[in-house]
Amino acid sequence: MMNFMLLAIVVLGTIALVASAILFVVSKRFAVEEDPRLAKVAEVLPGANCGGCGFPGCSGMADALVRAADNGSLEGLNCPVGGSKVMSQVADLLGMSVAQTEPMVAVVRCNGSCENRPRTAVYDGLSSCAAMNACSAGETACGYGCLGCGDCVEACRFGAIALNEETGLPEVDEEKCTACGACVKACPRHIIELRKKGPKGRRVYVSCVNKDKGAVARKACQTACIGCSKCVKECKFEAITVADNLSYIDWSKCRLCKKCVAACPTGAIVAKNFPAPKPVEPKAEEVAKPVEPKAEEVAKPAEPKAEETAPKPIEPKKEATEAAPKTIEPKDEAKEVTA
Length: 339
Known about the structure:
Blueprint: H1 2-29, H2 36-44, H3 57-71, H4 83-94, E1 104-108, H5 129-135, H6 151-155, E2 161-163, E3 170-172, H7 182-186, E4 192-196, E5 203-206, H8 214-220, H9 230-234, E6 240-243, E7 246-249, H10 259-263, E8 269-272, H11 306-309, H12 318-322, H13 332-338
Antiparallel strand pairs: 1-4, 2-3, 5-8, 6-7
Helix pairs in contact: 2-3, 2-4
């Protein structure tokens, strides 16, 4: 019995030694050397693994950056979470130069609040924008607007989006938004868009994605774009175009003049983070002052003229003076009667 046990131990030990020797030789023969720059670049990246860069996590982004550096250019690669600061550190680490990119922010292009877009139906199902969009047009007559279930809120890993209970629409916190694009991918109706943040956070955009004709869109929502093209005629920089009954503002051409905002008859164009207009005050010259009469124009009591003071005596007319009463002489017949 002991012989069999010893034999088994010897056989198993021999197999283990041979297998380990083979594995050691294979590991040395087919070893893959990792570029030491990958670990350094991965340390610089924020580690959010949001996928906003277009790669599967920060490790995929680090590998793409190292390969791009070997090819001689980092053009087209950008970390939306880290921004230009992180990209500058990566470029210095790889001995490359990177172009400065303008900060972006997520924009919700829907102004169909509960007040502007009345409810026409009740949805009783899975509380998800994707599920609601797949089975119906939502609870309103607009088949393009926000569904309000909060898929974008769940997709954001930075807590930059929250649903407003009064309006039922998602609102983006610009300070927390990293422009990773997760909310853009989560929205089934594509009403969220990444746009240039703009100087001092100021930007102008069309807060509507409804492509129905004007009358139909306006019936569904009071602030819908009706495709009237008044904004196109007002813009002198050719930044606005109209397609499929919907206007769109190209942020790369927009000069933030806000003339299109005033021209829009429905209020579909929104100007964000602009200072409130100051009340127009009348100029000092135009302020109404009580008119003081001049010394010469001071009202004086009217003095009667010499001609008007003495009343003239009323002279009787010539006809009245000459018209004296005449005595009536009796006729001859009357005299004969008395005789």
